[in-house]
From TrEMBL:
Its EC number is 2.1.1.-. The lineage of its organism: Bacteria, Pseudomonadati, Pseudomonadota, Gammaproteobacteria, Alteromonadales. S-adenosyl-L-methionine binds at T143, G164, D186, N227. This is Ribosomal protein L11 methyltransferase. Pfam families: PrmA (PF06325). CDD domains: AdoMet_MTases (cd02440). Methylates ribosomal protein L11. It is found in: Cytoplasm. It catalyses: L-lysyl-[protein] + 3 S-adenosyl-L-methionine = N(6),N(6),N(6)-trimethyl-L-lysyl-[protein] + 3 S-adenosyl-L-homocysteine + 3 H(+). Belongs to the methyltransferase superfamily. PrmA family. The keyword Transcription does not apply.
Length: 291
């Protein structure tokens, strides 16, 4: 089926009302994207965050008469608002989406593979993971930084805490790399569900325990990884530190590179910190709990 997309550049304060108007005018779907390449990370569950300069995109049937829709949209917006109409090619969008995902290698041993692709190296450590609702498929630099860190450790018989587990990718990778036990913690029940399903698909469900924060038991671990946000990493420093006994290895990500030094300094009270790892605009901070 062929489509037309109507793109409108506006401010965050106006974006939701513009989206509501497009839906009322017959848009089959409405999405919000960044109009000016502003770094942004996933919001907390239930929280709606929009970029200061937001592009609202309405998807319409190609047979729709767009002129009356354009007149109504233009009448509700300032005169200098950027509005564009673009035809979309008629293609198999599901196949197009699937073709964008390929097996990816992290470090020396670890591969993340979507289920519809052949495993490149059957003898490697392969985690089968499809893109889904919960964050974490290995494609984002913050996840990649953590996966490479895990690949470089000897996880044999280790207990690992995956704080902010999302899809479960880090905990599942740790188990596949030799960890004995993983405790996954997330504030989003949907993430807990996704982690459990992905653990079953990778035959590690019996080795992973999943908790909402209010349900988690008291625990210490050999390895702790938290791929969340700089703000929560600051606020929850003591919670994360308390998971770590002397000698525990810690990795923190979800951090913009300009935030990394501040996070490293904050945790240096209790940890001997490593050099900061950078990938693109993102960073990973890691260290070892002091005796």
């Amino acid at each position: 089926m062929a489509w037309i997309q109507l793109r409108i550049n506006t401010h965050a304060q106006r974006a939701e009302s513009v989206g509501d108007q497009l839906a009322e005018l017959g848009a089959q779907a409405v999405t919000f994207t960044d109009a000016k390449d502003t770094p942004w990370y996933e919001p907390k569950p239930g929280e709606v965050q929009l970029w200061p300069d937001t592009q609202v995109v309405g998807l319409f049937d190609a047979n729709e008469d767009m002129q009356p829709i354009l007149r109504q949209v233009q009448g509700a917006l300032p005169e200098n608002t950027l509005i564009k109409l673009d035809p979309l090619e008629d293609k198999d969008w599901e196949r197009e989406w699937m073709d964008n995902f390929h097996p990816v290698r992290f470090g020396k041993r670890l591969w993340i593979c979507p289920s519809w692709r052949d495993v490149p190296d059957p003898g490697a450590v392969n985690v089968m993971l499809d893109p889904g609702l919960a964050f974490g498929t290995g494609t984002h630099p913050t996840t990649a930084l953590c996966l490479r860190w895990l690949d470089g450790l000897d996880l044999t018989k280790c207990t690992v805490v995956d704080f902010g587990c999302g899809s479960g990718i880090l905990g599942i990778a740790a188990l596949k790399l030799g960890a004995a036990r993983v405790i996954g913690i997330d504030i989003d029940p949907q993430a807990i569900q996704a982690s459990a399903e992905n653990a079953r698909r990778n035959s590690v469900a019996e080795q992973i325990e999943l908790y909402l924060p209010e349900q988690q038991p008291a625990l210490n671990a050999d390895i702790v990884v938290a791929n969340i946000l700089a703000g929560p990493l600051r606020e929850l420093r003591q919670v994360i530190t308390d998971y770590c006994r002397p000698g525990t290895m810690l990795a923190l990500s979800g951090i913009l590179k300009e935030q990394a030094e501040d996070i490293s300094n904050l945790y240096s009270k209790d940890f001997d910190m490593d050099a900061i790892a950078i990938e693109g605009d993102w960073a990973r901070v890691s260290g070892k709990r002091k005796a």
